[in-house]
Amino acid sequence: MKNAVVMENLAVVLNRPRYAGNIGSAARCAKNMGIRDVVVVDPSDRDEEMIRKMATHAASDVVDKIRYESSLKEALAHFTYVVGTTARMGGSHLRRSMVPSTELAEHIEPLSRNNRIALVFGSEDRGLSNTDLQMCHMIATIPVSESFKSINLSHAVMIVCYELFSWRGMDPPPAFSTPRLASSAELEGMYESLKDLFMEIDFINAENPDYWMVAVRNLFSRTGLYSRDVKIIKGICRQLGHHGNGRTSGGGLKKQKS
Q1: Alpha carbon distances (Å) from 11 to 145, 146, 147
Q2: In contact, 99 and 143? CB cutoff 8 Å
Q3: How high is the pLDDT of residue 45?
Q4: Which end of the chain, N or C, is less packed with Cβ atoms under 10 Å?
């Protein structure tokens, strides 16, 4: 039997969608591809009648279970791997892990066996911000014509979910399994501990710490951290915070802009 993405362990997360119809259409697309969980963050329009109309009766069970959250951070707290989507192809170092949607499945298939994975889509007019993308382990883009790059939100959901649903890889090795990664909430707590420590020892600029933390996030996003790893790193931060009374000359990230 060929490898296949475990769709039941995936969820579609819509961040600040503008139109209720797109929420319903996205729910329908999710169910078409075997995904039963949809999370909606701070929608502009929550017209239940329109949502159900666009989802159709066949996806009403998905609509019934939609979880609404006020922030993306809260929405992602219990997921252990996060895939963001964007149409922007700029040179920002935030897009260090960008892959085309056609290659996404081979990256997340092993993780999908024992981890909860969020597929995050931004609003219709603005997409995901750089701050949103910082919370993602990987970023996917949908290859489209240069003459017209804009894709309807529900269409984007369908394309990404179809790529994952239809992919089949090589036969898995015997008794192979992937441990559960640290959750988004655990990672965010770790990053807060690291940021506090780095400011205390003058490793990053305290005036704009989140900017300097991007490089740190990029580093850890390339390594799948487990819960135990995160606990060890937070423990190190606590111990260094307790014993570090002096300050350095600031020879860390502040001098390494490249």
Answers
A1: 27, 29, 31
A2: no
A3: 97
A4: C
pLDDT at residue 249 is higher than 50: no
In the block, tokens 């889509």 appear at 121
Task: HSE, CB side, 13 Å, CA atoms: give it for residue 173.
Answer: 4
The C-alpha atoms of residue 20 and residue 25 are separated, in whole angstroms, by 9
Residue found by looking up tokens 């640290």 in the block: 182
Mean pLDDT of 203-215: 84
Torsional class of 124: left (φ above 0), alpha (ψ -120 to 50), beta (otherwise): alpha
**Domain-wise residue ranges, the chain:** 7-166, 184-255
Tokens of 2: 């060929």
- What span, in angstroms and rounded, lies between the C-alpha atoms of 180 and 177? 10
CATH code at 7-166: 3.40.1280.10
Full-model pTM: 0.73
